[in-house]
Amino acid sequence: MARYIDAKCRICRRNGDKLMLKGDRCFTSKCAFERRDVPPGYTGTSKRRAKKSDRGLQLQEKQKARYTYGLMERQFRKFFAEAERLQGITGENLLIMLERRLDNVIFRFGFASSRAQARQLVCHGHFLLNGRKTDIPSCLVKPGDAIAWREHSTKGEYYKILVQEIEGRTIPGWLTLDKQKLAGQVVSLPTAQDIEIKFDEKAIVEYYSR
User: In the CATH hierarchy, which fold is given to the domain comprising 102-186?
Assistant: First the structure.
């Protein structure tokens, strides 16, 4: 399973925006983007970089979306192709499909501080989807799906700490969570208004439409 393993903070600096790729660390003074919000390789004596073309800006938006959800180009392109086939606005369809990924839902429930951590938890088989163990982060959830921790996973130290911290985490309106049992359910599909994004989905559609 391919994944990005280079320094994540360089991604934020390269794209000029904090993409929250390292979870709680992004809220602290240790965040590299806060300490040096300039592109990698930039020095005080560097010449100003050339202004980006429309194509370059579209590429940047696509890359921001891809890195936000932790996908490689081939995976992201498949999501876009499926979004094009669905009825409705392609950009919104893409956002909704990305939000429906199981690793993203785990992140939205507050079970992980980042999508990368959520992906790892899913891959290690810590969750049940509708009563069955699943270790596929790209699995798409649907309304009515129930997600819970496996019994053996509730005995770990990570789970015990999470029980204490979960009260302070906000859950989006299309999900519900029993904070006592740490069991959640998908109430409905997310809408474009439910999704907090750091990129322009219209630019992504324009990028792939060429």
Answer: 3.10.290
